[in-house]
Amino acid sequence: MTLHPRKARSLKRGRMLSTSVAVVAAILTALPPLAQACTRTLFVGADQTVITGRNMDWKEDMGSNMWILPAGMTRDGASGPNSLAWTSKYGSVVVTGYDAGTTDGMNEKGLVANILYLAESDYGTPQAGKPFLSISLWAQYVLDSHATVAEAVADLSAEPFALLAPTLPNGAPAALHLSLSDSSGDSAIFEYIGGKLVIHHGRDYTVMTNSPAYDQQLALDDYWQEIGGLTFLPGTNRAADRFARASFLLGAIPRKLDPNYIAGVPGHSFANQAVAGVMSVQRAVSVPLGITTPDQPNISSTLWRTVADQKNRVYFFDSATRPNTFWVAFDKVDFAPGSGVRKLDLAKGEVYAGEVSGQFRPSAPFTFLPGKPPAP
Predict the structure, then answer these.
(1) 365: nearest Cα among 85, 114, 73
(2) For residue 189, what is the enclosing H or E element?
(3) Which residues sit opposite 176 in a β-bridge?
(4) Which pTM value belongs to this model?
(5) What residues act catalytically?
(6) Is residue 265 domain-resident?
(7) Dihedral of the alpha carbons of 202, 207, 208, 213, in degrees to the nearest 10
(8) Which domain holds residue 102?
(9) Coil, helix or strand for 226?
């Protein structure tokens, strides 16, 4: 396992532009030809308002639904008799992919988990003696178990399980990486590269997309920071270009109440202004619905966006196929053990508006995609 605190960024701003150009050229040459697309951003305001946004980009509709999962649920790693076992300490609101795994969510303590595609993922050979965890439960395990990023880093850096990556329901490989953020603004990125867990931990890690591996994404961002976003920004739907645009836009939106716009913000609150700002960034780096890239057929359309207000514990959902943004206010949700699993149907074009916690309905839990343990 390799842990990169925020000071370990691969290139420091201020190096000669010629060096950055050489690094960028090498990285771009090495990029895989096919990549799914997603974008995650983390905003921290001057008053320590914390907002995380993410886009879910995929090559087909994923049949996503939204779920309330209470504390006190017993789970296992869905990977046979040697699966990891735990009981959820915290309740969460999550969005599924294919109703077979947690792709995004926030728990009752304001910890946010986002699963994004990473073609370079290599989980290695499972170590003998370690319990197994299907990757469909990776984000859910963290949301169930931890209140802060620091807690999660301490746990996952000890590698308490072997991660198994089954083929996804659409036949795609489960090549994924994980981002976490909490209500303090702390952040961490978890990737498996060359069979080894790599963790980037620190408040500076505010943007994540897909390929290349995260240390190379940071190198690309350093290059574009030297160019300057007001001079030029790359405009394609490639992950590296979306990273550069998201990084610039995230740094450009106001960090405090803006008198030019606050009159039109609900409640005239900075928190709602910040949510609107982050949502506008996520929309600006979205891939239009139905777009195709002939030489990169797996570059994917944005299906939906989430924005999480982690101080006020409000989770927003914005669909690319429906006219309204809606949200779940956690202070209206019962997460207590025994309160039951509840589901908000989204997969058939249902339309919602405003606060929707009262529209969830009791449901049996969804089944996590099982991992396939290695033969003994």
Answers:
(1) 73
(2) strand 187-193
(3) 117
(4) 0.89
(5) 38
(6) yes
(7) -60
(8) 2-362
(9) helix
